[in-house]
Every structure is written in C-alpha cells, then in structure tokens.
Amino acid sequence: MIVAYLNLVNVADVRQRLTSLGKVLGPACDLRNDSNYEALLIAHEFRHKIISPAFADLSSNMAMAAESTLPFLIDAFNGFRFHDPDLPENRDQYETFLHVYVRDRIGNAIRRKIAGSMHLETKLEDILVRLGTNPTEAHYEHLENRSRCQCLQVKLDL
Predict the structure, then answer these.
(1) Summary mean pLDDT of the chain
(2) What pLDDT is recorded for position 53?
(3) Residue range 45-96, pLDDT digits in tens
(4) Exposed (0-12), middle (13-18) or buried (19+): which is 66, by Cβ within 10 Å?
(5) Hey, where are the domains in the chain?
(6) What long-range pairs does 61-70 form, CB within 8 A, spacing at least 24?
C-alpha cells in the first residue's frame, strides 16, 4: 500500500529506498531497546557525560539514518504536495499553509534550539530549500481551523 501510494505521487525508486530505510531502522530498534534506561537517565540529568557503547551506537546510527533517508522523505513530502489526487482543488491554500508551518513555525523553533551551530543552521536551511514550499496569495486559515476541529472531534470520539 505504501509502495503503491508513493509510486502514485511520483517518488522515484520507492522499493529500494523503503528497503534501505528498513535496514537502518531494524538495528536502531535493537539499540534503542538496549539504551532505553540510559536514555531516561540522560534526559533527566544535566551534562550527563557517561554513556554506554550501545547508546553511542544508537546515536550514531540514528544520525546516519536521518541523513540517509532525508532525501527520500523530502521526495515523499513533495510528492504529496504536488501529485496527491485527493488534495483538494485549493492546492495553493495548502501550499501556503505548509510554507507557514514548515518554514516559519517549525523552522523557527528548530533555529532557536540550534542557534550558534553554523553547521546545523546550514543543514536546516538546506533542508528547507529542498522542501521548497512557496507562499501564495491564498488564505489558509480555514484549513488550520478545520484541522483543529477534526482533532477535537477525534478526542471527543475517544
């Protein structure tokens, strides 16, 4: 089902890229299980210096996974934006909505977290350029309100 959808929205080499993603996530899952307790300790301690080899492997593998799968995830995101047949005719409104969220809201939140690291700031800007969202003149506020209402309805249904 995932392969069929990604092919539908013109993502290249879907099977190969999903297989590569699975090969990275499989070992990372085992490392995560080995490192769960240690991660909790680190999360609650300031400047925790001692980490196990398993946790160091987890960290390294997850960084490599993010780097290696990012082009695939960007292609999938852009495939949805440009080619999803179920995206309503107000695609321009969705484009502006996504631009505001990706560049302004999410991008600015990440910028605050990584401020001072030129390497990470450069990587973030590269990702945002590759996503390539563009503002349009279309108003999107009703989309945001609709998504909030749908979230509220899901919570009420539970």
Answers:
(1) 80
(2) 77
(3) 555 566 677 777 777 777 877 888 889 989 999 998 889 988 877 888 888 8
(4) exposed
(5) 1-86, 88-158
(6) 61/24, 61/27, 61/28, 61/31, 62/28, 64/24, 65/21, 65/24, 65/25, 65/28, 68/20, 68/24, 69/17, 69/20, 69/21, 69/24, 70/127
CA distance 148 to 154: 10
Handedness of CA 124, 127, 131, 134 (dihedral sign): positive
Location of structure tokens 């609709």: 146
Tokens linked to 123: 């990587």
Cα 99 from Cα 63, distance rounded (Å): 26
What is the value of pTM for the model shown? 0.69
